[in-house]
Fold:
Amino acid sequence: RRAVEAEVATLGEVAQASTTDEKPRPLQLVQIDLEKNKVRLNEEDLAVLEKSLENTGVEKVAIIAVMGAFRTGKSFLLDLMLRYLREKHPPKGYKNEDIPQECEVPDWVQERKVPDWAVNCGPNLLEGREGGSQDREGFVWRPGMEKCTEGIWVWSEVFVCKAGDEDVAVVLMDTQGAWDARMSKEQSATIFGLTTLLASRLIYNVSKQIQQDKIDNLLYFTDFAKAALRAMQRGTGSVSEPFQTLEFLVRDWPHYQENFNFKDARNMMKNHLDQYFNPKKSQDTKSVEALVDLFHDIDVWCLPHPSLKIESETWNGDLAVIEKQFWRYIDGYLDKIFDPAQLQAKQNLGNAITVSTFGTVLREFSSAFSD
Ligand code: GDP
Ligand code: MG
Structure:
C-alpha cells in the first residue's frame, strides 16, 4: 500500500510539472483589486513564469517592459518583439534548435518588405477574427474597445540573449493602466511604479510626441516607486539613479521623411529627446532633472505609422499591409535593444533580482505597494 501511495505521489508530481509546461500564453502577474484598492499577485501565473525562468538555466534576468496608455499599440509592439525573439533566440524545446550565440546585425538597408524574422510568422496577428490566426499565440490585442491588459502581464516564454558576454533570461512585460473611471490615478501609478522597479528597460510608449503631461505622469508614478523602495530599504539610505533605462518610444512619428537615411532619423530622434531632456533647452528643468536623477539612462526611438489600413475596423491583421518604412524602423529598433552591447541584466535594488529571486522580490515589492 505504501509503495502504491509513493507511486501515486510521483505521478502527481509529474502531472504538476507538465502543467507548467503548457502552451505559451500571457500571464497576469499583478492585478489591482479595484474595490479593495489593493495590488493582487497572481501566484499561479507567477509560478508558471518562475518555472520558465528556471528552465533557462541562466541566473541573470533582463525585463523589457512596455507601458503607456490604452490603445497606443503596446501589445502590437510586444507581439512583434515576441516574433523577433522566437526567430533569433528560440527558447529551449522550440522547433528551431539552432540558437544563435548573439544577435546578428541584419542588413536593414536592403529593400525588403518584411524582415526575415517576420516572414515565417504568417500573415495574421489577430485571434478570433475572420482570417485571423488561431494557432499561433501572442499578446492579446484587439482593434475593439475591450480592455484586456489592465495590470502587469508577462509572456510565459523566456528567451536567452547575451548582455555583453553574459547570458540573460529575457522577460517581456506588458503594463497597462487606465486613467479613467475604472482605475484611479493612484491605482495606475501603483502598477506603473511596480513596473518601473522591475524593468531593466522601461519603454514608455507615447503617441506622436513626448509631451509635458507624459513626463508629469512619469514623475507621479516614479514617486510611488521611490516610496516603495524606501519602505523596503529602511535605514540603508537612498540610492541615486535607482532605475535603469527609460526609453521613450514615439509611435506614429510625425517627422518621419521618406528621404531620411537612418543616421538622419537617429539625429532627429535625439533632437526630439533633447528638447525635453537638455536642461538648457527645456522649459521645465525641474522635472527633467528629477528624471535624470532617477534613471541611469534616458533613450528615445521613433517609429513611423505602420499603415493607415491598420486603423480600419475591417483590417484582419494581415501584416502585408504594413508599410516598408515601419519594418525598417522596427527592425533597426529591435536589433538595437537586443544588441548584446545594449541589453542589460536587471541590476540590484538592494534586493538581487535574478532568475531565482524574481518571485520573492515581486512579492516583496507588491506588498510594499499595498501598505
Ligand atoms: P494597447 O492597448 O496599447 O496594447 O494597443 P494595441 O496594441 O492593442 O493596439 C490598439 C490598436 O492600435 C489596434 O487596433 C492596432 O491595430 C492599432 N495600432 C497598433 N500599433 C499602432 C501604431 O503604431 N500606430 C497606430 N496608429 N495604431 C496602431
Ligand atoms: Mg494591450
User: Anything to note?
Assistant: The mean pLDDT is 76. The beta strands are 26-33, 38-41, 60-68, 151-155, 159-163, 166-176, 201-207, 243-251, 295-302. The first strand starts at residue 26 and ends at 33. Residues 74-75, 141, 149, 174, 176 surround magnesium ion (ligand 2) (CB under 6 Å).
